[in-house]
Write a structure and sequence with these properties.
Elements: E1 6-8, E2 25-27, H1 32-45, E3 50-56, H2 59-71, E4 78-85, H3 91-100, E5 105-109, H4 112-124, E6 130-134, E7 154-158, H5 169-178
Parallel strand pairs: 1-2, 3-4, 3-5, 5-6, 6-7
Helix pairs in contact: 1-2
Amino acid sequence: MFLFSQISYGAASSVFSKKQNYPSFLRTVHPNKDVIEVIVNIILHFKWSWVAFLNIDDDYGNDGRDLFIKMIKDTEICLGYTKGLQHDSDYSSIFRQIQAQKIGVIVVFAAEWTAEALIKSAIQLNITNKVWIAGDAWSLNKELPKEKGIKNIGTVLGVAEPVVEIPGFSDFVHSAKSKNHCENTEQELL
């Protein structure tokens, strides 16, 4: 059987790292395992021990949550609360639970639109003095820092992938755009 390379620009789930199951799968982003490892290291570095983990309730988010639970197993980090977020989540109930348990660190491992709704709700519900750790899916959001009241929620730390220049790539894109590849419009497809 021929193996054709499958290249994904956004699949971060750890399941795709199993080469025996996906031998020709390649990705252009870090796997969830790497991002979660950085988040755990941040928590360990600051010696925070009582945390909440909020994730989007899908394969991406649940994979992140499962990896987080696995990585904190033999550490001083205690997972006080976890919740899968959906489009109709009751944020006030979620924050009541977090407040009742006196949790000060909230990891948000979710897509950008889910994280935006969560953070806007935190602002509206006057959730203050928390440490928020943003997964790479929303850590570089350009709109949230402009939200009125964002400074009241506490400190937001984000994990983001570095931007890497590929030598010659911009020249290639520029030259490809300037060339007309379809000189003969009546090409025959084989």
